[in-house]
Amino acid sequence: MNRIGHFWKVFLIFLMILAGWGLAFAKRENVGDSQTGLDLTFDVEGNFARAEAPMEFQFPRDFGSHDDFQTEWWYYTGNLETERGRRFGYQLTIFRRALLPPEKRFERPSEWAVEQVYLAHFAITDVQNDRFYADEKLARGSAGLAGAVGQPYFQVWLEDWRVVQIDENRFQLSAKSDRADLDLFLTDLKGVVFQGEHGFSRKGEETGNASYYISQTRLLTEGKITIEGQSFDVKGLSWMDHEFSTSALGEDQVGWDWFSLQFDNNHEIMLFTLRKEDGTIDRFSTATLILPDGRTHHFANDEFTVTRIGEWKSPETGAVYPAGWRINIPAISLDLEVHPLIPNQELVLSYIYWEGAVSLRGQLGGEEVNGYGYVELTGYGQSMRGRF
Question: Does the pTM of the predicted model rise above 0.85?
Answer without folding.
Answer: yes
